Prior knowledge:
CATH topology of the domain at 73-302: Aspartate Aminotransferase, domain 2
Helix content: 40-55%
Shape: globular
Number of helices: 19
CATH architecture of the domain at 73-302: 3-Layer(aba) Sandwich
CATH superfamily of the domain at 73-302: Type I PLP-dependent aspartate aminotransferase-like (Major domain)
Number of strands: 15
Bound molecules: pyridoxal-5'-phosphate
Largest sheet: 7 strands, mixed
Amino acid sequence: MPTNKFSRREFIRRNSLTGLGAVLAPAVLTGTSASGSSSPALPTSSSLAEPLALLGGKPIRSKQWPVWPIWKPEQDEKQLLEVIRSGIWSRATVVSEFEAQWAATLGVKRSLAVVNGTNALIAALAQLDVRGGDEVLVPPYTFIGTVAPVLATGAMPVFVDVDPETFQMNPANIEAKITSRTKAIIPVHILGLPANMPQILAIAKKHNLVVIEDACQAHLAEIDHQKVGTFGDAGCFSFQNSKNLAIGEGGAVVSNDDAFMDRCFSYHNYGNPYGMVSGVIGAGTLIQGTKMRLTEYQAAIGLAQLKRLDAETTTRNTNAAYLKAKIRSIPGIVPYKLYDNVTRAAFHLFPFRYQKEAFKGLPREMFLKALAAEGIPCSKGYATLNNMPYLDDAFRSKNYQKMYPKAMLNFKGYVERNHCPQNDRLCNEEAVWFTQNMLLGTQADMDEIANAIEKIYTQADKLLSQK
Ligand SMILES: *Cc1c(COP(=O)(O)O)cnc(C)c1O
């Protein structure tokens, strides 16, 4: 232990002098092709020894980060203005064009645009016949937008703990959660890193469960060169403002199953026959539906964003690989792991685990404050979703009381059965995120992130003696 500590300290001292970049040159060389960046800002012993910004020193970075969303009037506005001037604002040809391009981009047969990712999941669940009385397996490490749709259909979310190395639902924990009520699994490609689809699909097949991929953060991510969202019975995407393809609000369901997609179309338009859109009265409504239609101007914004998505995704992958290679050697910093079969990630977020023991016990909260003060925006990410009051609220409703035995609805018992210790550790102690717009910066920007972390590492004792 002391030997280890010494060698790590030695490592940092050495790199303060030579610069991390020099040590990591091979990784740098393999990961730089697309970022087109300038010379890396190597840390010097003096910049690491500068007082911490949180304690009044000069921040590592004072420049702005790339803004999001991106809008380039010259190339983005032509079609949008045409739509606005046409007066055809409700769903018509531009939405269809966006759907066709999204399907082609993913290499999937069909795509249906809807109002947001949450409703994409609601439509998919409803048309795969997930109902009150069913159980749906979900990871706890996700946005509420994964779980709210399960409750909206009247089904019971059952939480499957994560693999902390990948931040994804751990397939090894799935089978223990399957009961006679289990109907579906929702793997979430959380943070834009692909979930372990081959293993999840095999388990689903064995137990005859439907699979709905929540790919709301994972635009263009791939497993063995196949886009995520195209593995399951359905894939759901979000185009909310923060997402890697931003429309403000918007979503899509994708699938290769024509009959399912026809039903989703009907469902998103009151249950009226497939292909029928706005302005039709007395359509001969066929199935129970609701209204989730995207507008023409939203689709025009989506088409403009779609033109840049592939190049942006490449930049994020390049910068993420570079940053990961630089910070993984800092003690106490454990970056995400990708499964071996991942050929591309989306990096909606860049995650790592912060292990305070290596930072002399400096709490994550203080580390985040110090990092933000150095000009590096960061977040601790999700709170635990598997024990919040919204679940109890659903369980107290008349529908849940009718559809489930009392014992299943006892909130204390539910929270105990759905305890996910690995997720608790990520949420409450270890996870740290950077947002996707930061990964659109240059390699020098990534160097500043790494330098700021290293600066805090070398001076953690000063923060501790402060408080
Ligand atoms: C954003 C998101 C959703 C919901 O999408 P909206 O478009 O915001 O409704 C669902 N799941 C995950 C994982 C998300 O990140």
